[in-house]
Amino acid sequence: MAAEEQRVGSPPPPSLLPAPVGSVAPLRRLAAARLAGLLIALCCLATASAPAIAADSSGSPPAAGRQGRRQPLVPPVPDGSPEELLGYIESLADPAAMPTSRGRLRYYLRKAAAATAEAAGRIIADTEPGDALHNRGVTLKLDALLTLQKLGERGAAEDLAAFASSLPPLDDADLAARVQKAAATAEVEAVLAAGNPADAAALVGRLAAALRTDPDDLALARTAIDLATKLADLPDGEPAAAAAFETFMPILEGSDSPPVRQLAEQTAAVARRISLPGHPMKITGTLLSGEPFDQATLAGKVVLVDFWATWCGPCVAEIANLRREYEKWHEAGFEVIGVSLDEDRASLEGFVESKQIPWPILYEEPGGPGWRHPLATYYGITGIPTVVLIGADGNVITLDARGKKLAAALERLLGEPPARIGDRR
Description:
alpha/beta, Glutaredoxin, 2 domains, five-stranded mixed beta sheet, two-stranded antiparallel ribbon, 15 helices, elongated
């Protein structure tokens, strides 16, 4: 969701939810755990605490504490046998001192994960595929690279994808599945980081093939939905996102797994919205006056559907721009339909009157906790303002028409605005 939007209504699919906020205190109880479990557990806490540790993300060692408490150190990776390297890795899970702040925790994690990846790589190189130590090395390196990726280490996603592709076939089916899923997640991160939606086509094909092999794999299904959803946030990413949803949804809807089918149901509305460009949009509801809305009144007009609320600061800020474009282009065939997500009719009516909003507003009485306008639910609106620009032929043109983009689109669609008495040109 863009920074200038506000969240509304029900939560997004589980794959899109942020991790719960944690604390440093429970970490002390994990000191004796295996490193793989320690790294993943600590990583979740560090990632969830990102705002608090932003100043420590440079990778530089933190300054010593005021009370001079000893901080954990990561010794260099030693030369030695696979067994000795494994012992070194396990020692990192039980340092002599534990981090005393989130910044130091992040610093230690980065160093420990990098050292683990290096040591595990040596174990893999010095053992034979199928050997227990070899598989242990694969597991440890996989966990270490996942930790570095979650901590935002530059190039970690690419390193993870390269590591997964370099491995020969694994005899451990569970480990092979873990590697495949980690590689898919890393590829998703790499594609999104590159910011080129066209790069996603091959990845969508590989994820779809994996899902067809195992349509009940919830983790893989979430990875696929995460990719499709985030593609829509990239510049000009809507077509790629729509194509991804069109590929994934039939597979997920046909799964025998109830959680996977539930994920598909939760995502269907988002897919419906993202797939709108090039297709008609269904607009139904009740006007603020209490009369039913008739979509036929929009025939032949260029229409902007604006999902908004009076409590949404960015929505209110956009009204001045909408009014300016409405007054300029209304006589040429431009209409705005506001879809209010407000729950208090009186407050909404007062706002519309005070701001002298001239376009129709759709409003429905609240139907209980977690209420959202039915049209917002139908199209998976999770943040407002969300706008949909519809052409005179009734087909959606774009989901990105705010600010100057709206002015440019209207000039392209409607030409010069009609002259008015007193206009100076």
